[in-house]
Specification:
With 551 residues, the chain is an alpha+beta fold. The protein has helices at residues 28-34, 69-91, 119-132, 143-152, 156-162, 225-241, 246-254, 258-283, 299-312, 350-361, 435-451, 455-472, 491-503, 513-523, 541-544, and strands at 10-15, 18-23, 41-44, 47-49, 59-64, 96-103, 106-112, 137-142, 169-175, 178-180, 197-201, 204-208, 288-292, 316-321, 366-367, 370-372, 377-379, 384-385, 391-396, 414-420, 426-428, 431-432, 482-485. A five-stranded mixed β-sheet has the order 2-1-5-3-4. A five-stranded parallel β-sheet has the order 14-19-13-20-23. A hairpin with a 2-residue loop joins β11 (197-201) and β12. α4 runs antiparallel to α5. The longest helix has 26 residues, at 258-283.
């Protein structure tokens, strides 16, 4: 048959329960354009696809935009690609930018090799590239070819990373003369990334893109000095230890240096806890140590280890959970969906908490309640407490940094600590590891081991957990007297053995499957190490088991 007269197949595309017909090999970009959607990716029968892919069968199609978690991460990666290309266009090999970590509401990029860079020039070049709407090409090359390409481009961390990859081929993105590897998808062309701003900060710059709940607005940079310093110190400590990226971590593991790495990492953590204890003692009048942090930060293990350090100073710490001051179930407020809202401050009996804490500070004996979560009632079981001269309360709870919780208590009696698992390890020089990924993996292991909760359920709840953190924890982190990073740099290599099997249990037809698949791909970068040499008092033990503490 003459090719001109060949009848093209047509396939049905279900979009929001409305069926459309398109010819075979129609690109998803063309479908997105026709529907005038600001889609960055599409989900094809629950599988994520980039827009250059084409139609091959009848499908159900969903649009992934900047308002989706995956869409926003795609937008960020694409903005970083354009930024790195712009820096190379202006400065050539004189600057070796390193994508470090989130700080405030932006992403920090360290500008190694150049202290007096012109941020206006970089911003201008980025906008030129966006205005030109240049197609971003995706190439599949043999891993050995990729290693040579990365070496020739001076991307030595990527070269090291792919020496430990088992896959035979690698996907590389090409933007004109600039090539890079990205952990995750990239947009179809540069014109998709039309909202961003750059701010000069410390020894680098901060890239700001819209938030997913306000995709049309690029907000002003809001720095978080204390968290930046904690992450910056952790990052430099990782560099000093020679494990700033996954390739270097894998090299240490391959060279038999695992035990030494674990010991150094835990010693660094213990010193930090000791420094916090020293600061509490120097204050002289602290009676309430208040600890808060996002989910799976290791708050309980940290409070135990801090208590041991305080004991070494002659103090007598007493652990106390603010959760014991929950209101009874019938008095718990409900959210906008009519569901019980256990995370809001209104779920706590603030008045009773303040009354009891004031009585303790005044030297009175108080019966401390415990909350029975099975029946949703506060109970009193004869747990009496009276504070002497050397007694100190170590209080843990989601709202501990919020002064509204302890509004009647004298400020000089309180010492507030913010704790989080602030991953200092990067995949390579241009691909960071979001701190939320580490915490999600921790929570998944703990949920399976201690609560019998499936990884599918944990993933499905994670967005809700994150919204609660952004509302009730992160706004108050800068008010802390001290910050503590609970993520040892060897952690994910240990966690890998525990979390991979449970991730494989997520069903392909579930909406959580793309996230499970992403996490499995992420774990594939790491060589695994056994947990035998992880100390029994390590915060990591709170999640993998075997802790010396009752956690």
């Amino acid at each position: 048959m003459d090719k001109k007269n060949k009848i093209m197949k047509k396939f049905k595309v279900n979009i929001n329960n409305e069926v459309f017909e398109y010819e075979e090999n129609t690109s998803y970009f063309d479908i997105v354009t026709e529907h005038k959607k600001k889609a960055l990716l599409v989900k094809v029968d629950s599988k994520l696809q980039e827009l250059h892919k084409t139609l091959k069968s009848d499908i159900k199609l969903e649009f992934i935009t900047l308002s989706d978690v995956i869409g926003r991460s795609t937008y960020e990666r694409s903005a970083v690609l354009i930024l790195l290309k712009s820096i190379k266009d202006i400065y050539g090999e004189n600057i070796k930018p390193i994508v470090e970590f989130s700080t405030g509401n932006g992403l920090f990029i360290r500008m190694n090799g150049e202290s007096e860079f012109d941020i206006d020039k970089i911003d201008g070049r980025m906008r030129e590239i966006v205005d030109e709407n240049i197609r971003i090409e995706k190439m599949s090359v043999h891993t050995d070819t990729a290693i040579k390409m990365f070496h020739d481009a001076g991307f030595f961390e990527k070269e090291k990373l792919f020496k430990f990859r088992r896959v035979s081929r690698v996907n590389i993105y090409k933007l004109e003369d600039y090539i890079d590897y990205n952990y995750g998808y990239i947009v179809y062309s540069t014109g998709f990334v039309n909202k961003f701003s750059l701010t000069k900060y410390k020894d680098g710059l901060v890239l700001i893109i819209p938030k997913k709940d306000n995709p049309e607005v690029v907000e002003e940079f809001v720095p978080e000095e204390k968290i930046f310093n904690e992450l910056n110190n952790a990052s430099k400590n990782a560099e000093d230890m020679g494990v700033a990226d996954v390739g270097s971590l894998n090299e240490m593991i391959a060279n038999g240096m695992t035990n030494e790495m674990i010991l150094i990492s835990e010693a660094y953590m213990e010193k930090k806890i000791g420094d916090i204890a020293d600061d509490i003692v120097k204050r002289g009048n602290v009676k309430l140590v208040m600890i808060a942090g996002p989910s799976s930060s290791g708050k309980t293990s940290f409070s135990h280890r801090l208590s041991i350090q305080l004991r070494s100073h002659g103090l007598k710490p007493h652990p106390l959970e603010v959760d014991n001051y929950f209101k009874n179930r019938e008095d718990t407020p409900r959210d906008e969906h009519g569901e019980l809202d256990f995370e809001c401050l209104g779920a706590m009996d603030i008045e009773k908490f303040n009354e009891d804490m004031l009585a303790l500070l005044n030297g009175e004996e108080v019966e401390i309640p415990s909350f029975n979560f099975k029946i949703g009632q506060r109970e009193y079981n004869g747990n009496f407490l009276k504070l002497g001269k050397d007694d100190i309360l170590v209080i843990e709870g989601i709202h501990c940094l919020n002064d509204e919780l302890s509004y009647r208590l004298p400020k000089d009696s309180r010492y507030k600590i913010y704790i989080s698992a602030l991953t200092q390890l990067n995949i390579d020089e241009h691909n960071r590891i979001p701190t939320t990924d580490g915490r999600l993996l921790r929570r998944m292991i703990r949920d399976v081991r201690k609560r019998g909760t499936s990884p599918t359920k944990t993933i499905s709840m994670w967005d809700s957990v994150r919204r609660g953190e952004e509302k009730y924890i992160f706004p108050y982190q800068s008010s802390a007297d001290a910050t503590f990073n609970s993520a040892p740099n060897y952690e994910i290599a240990v966690i890998k053995q525990y979390v991979e099997p449970v991730l494989f249990s997520v069903q392909k037809d579930s909406k959580e499957y793309p996230e499970a698949k992403r996490l499995l791909k992420f774990l594939d970068y790491f060589l695994g190490i056994p947990s035998d040499n992880v100390p029994s008092n390590s915060i990591l033990r709170e999640f993998i088991g075997g802790s010396t503490f009752n956690v």
